[in-house]
Amino acid sequence: MISNNMKNKLRPIVLFVASVALSFIIFSCGNSKKADSDEIVLEGRFIHSRANIVYFDVIHVESTERIDSIVLDEDGAFQLRYPTKKPVFIKLFTAEDNFITLVAEPGELITLSGDINALAESYTVSGSPASELVAKYLEFTRGQYKQLDTLSLIWENNKYSNNKLVLRDSLDSLAKTIFSDQRNHVLDVIHKNPESLGSLFVLYQFFGRNPVLDPFEYFNDYESLAKTLSAKYPDFEHVGHLNMRVNKTRLAIQEEEEIKLRLDTGKVAPDFTLPDINEKMVRLSDLKGNIVLVHFWASWSAESVRQLSALRYYNQIYGPKGLVILSVSFDYDKDMWEKAIDDEDMKWYNLSDLKYTDSPISKLYHIEQTPYFYLLDRNQTITKKSSNIDDIGNAIYKLFFAH
Questions:
Q1: Count H helices, E strands: the chain?
Q2: N or C of the chain: less Cβ packing under 10 Å?
Q3: What is the C-alpha to C-alpha distance for residues 228 and 232, in angstroms, rounded to an integer?
Q4: What is the pTM of this model?
């Protein structure tokens, strides 16, 4: 049986516990009430906080907009109410290299936790399906990067070993598998969540320096997601931007197909005029009546230079029979270009506008790599096109000796 004296001693403790419990209930139930339909509520608690300032930006298509900043309380807790009738992408951060991205919709109460010093690596989120999808994707991606880091460490520890070439090929193969897994994961996410704005965030992600899903190679996936999201979020700026990107990509694909069709074998090669090394203008159509090898190259391209020995051989063997070599360079430095011509004994037509890969000729002939070759018959019809010098050599032989 508890004495009155003991009761008096316990009373302050009971009152303190009750007060703490009441405070917890107020914070958990009062502050965590359901968000109104025209607002987004963000709340949570970050550990290791010492009155840190947390910033909140809305991410627009081409800019960011500061909407608030909050000093975390002594427990690292915060709450933000943001009035909006449209979805938003929100960047929560303490510094430019310490942030998380949230995909929030009106009516959502989003709860966050994590380490204030490592937000991206530690945060958890609930109350926002799209933000949860993004968090799961980023968690998967961190695991992928860890695998790549392991491969890099293995290479650093063995790059001087006797079997380093075999090891390098093996590590390259594993790295390609990791990238393939990343791509398949992204496809799986957007295919399973076609109505989620989180899928839009995932669609745009890079892995290393490359986009996970190239918009040209995976155009159908971009187009399908844009169509679905447009039906659900017709006025959301990021969906509008996706539609614009899809439309531009569609036009580029159509243009590329038209160019390829125009450059098919059996078609007459597009005419052009360029200055030669002596600044004399040379027109392709003026060479009609000859078998012409149009050679696209650059002095800064190691593979281009490597194949010049084969061109010297073709010029020596077939030049007297009527072969004309027309080398079009995508150089930008005239001295470098001229030196390469002299060093490599390129005794044939050498043309360049010195506009690097911005040269209009690059687009006219759809050049995506150097070297590249177009072989034209005496009527300037395209008979062969290839990046392989041996394929071109066989085609030249057939033009001169097949009949």
A1: 12, 17
A2: N
A3: 7
A4: 0.70
